Amino acid sequence: MDVLINLFVALHIIGIAALLGGFLFQTKALRTGGARMLPGMLHGAITMLVTGVCLVGLHQAEGNEVDNLKIGVKLAVLVVILGLVYVKRDDAKVPSPVMGTVGLLTVLNIFIATLWT
Fold this sequence. Notes:
The chain is an all-alpha fold and 117 residues long. Helix content is 79%, strand content 0%. The radius of gyration is 15 Å and the shape is elongated. It starts with a helix and ends with a helix.
């Protein structure tokens, strides 16, 4: 079971890397107002959602305690990210505040995951 959990953790990290990497790739365009949501950002957010749900299920199946409040907050933040990325995925230009919000919420989700104990 530990191998499976570690596999899903790795996939979860790949998903967040795709989301944050897509945002960071667009920072130069963000300054000029020409930023757009990249397909990898949507795929990364979906990967995070699926692997996160799997991780919670695997931890509960193993009998481990899960902090439901932390998971709920992370899920809420991810749903907002996913909604923004999904709605703006076909736009040629995304407003800077929207793109900035996606980046900020992504970093917030990372901090929640690592600092909330």
